[in-house]
Amino acid sequence: MHVVPLSGPTGAEVLVWAASAEFSRGVPEQIPDPLPLLSARDVLAALRAAGCHGTAWFKIVSDGTTEPLAECPDPHACYGTARLDLGEVRFTVAGQVEGDDGVEPEALIEAISFRKPNTAAVLAAAGALAVSGGPQLVFDDSADSLFVIWPGESAESLLAQWPW
User: Which H or E run contains 127?
Assistant: First the structure.
């Protein structure tokens, strides 16, 4: 699964994409004005605020003040339950080619990808990211469902509409 800011790099294509998707929720008629991307530090803080944990597939260049992504305390207990396990988490850094370079705490994050997540955790994470990063677009690898979470919407209120 993937989470990107609605007003980010994919903004213009979202309206066309939504028209052909099997399912879409919260996609506006017009893409909102771009907001600044969140830093890696801000993204990690939002994931912590949501109570999420996972396995980081990135390395934060330590500055001594940025807390890392919390690891899953018990993967066997999390698997198949409603715990907030994001699985394997990868950041796409704006302007950085993928590689094993570390991620600076102030690096701007243009996308977050999750491999084998508890989907309720992705909903909680996207809701927390929307608080400071504006509306967030969630989709899976098939890209046939689009779900936008707007600031002020709670994960609990969206569960009945959540397609995953």
Answer: helix 119-133
d(CA 67, CA 75): 21
CB burial readout 113-130, b (16+ within 10 A) else e = bbeebbbbbbbbbbbbbb
Element housing 20 (H / E): helix 11-20
127 touches 161 (CB < 8 A) = no
CA 28 to chain centre: 19
What is the pLDDT, as a whole number, of residue 65? 82
For residue 88, what are the β-bridge partners?
Answer: 55, 115
1: which DSSP letter? Answer: -
Query: 52-101, pLDDT tens digit by residue?
Result: 999 999 999 877 788 889 888 777 777 656 689 999 999 999 988 776 67
Beta pairing class for 108-115 and 145-149? unpaired
Domain boundaries, the chain: 36-153
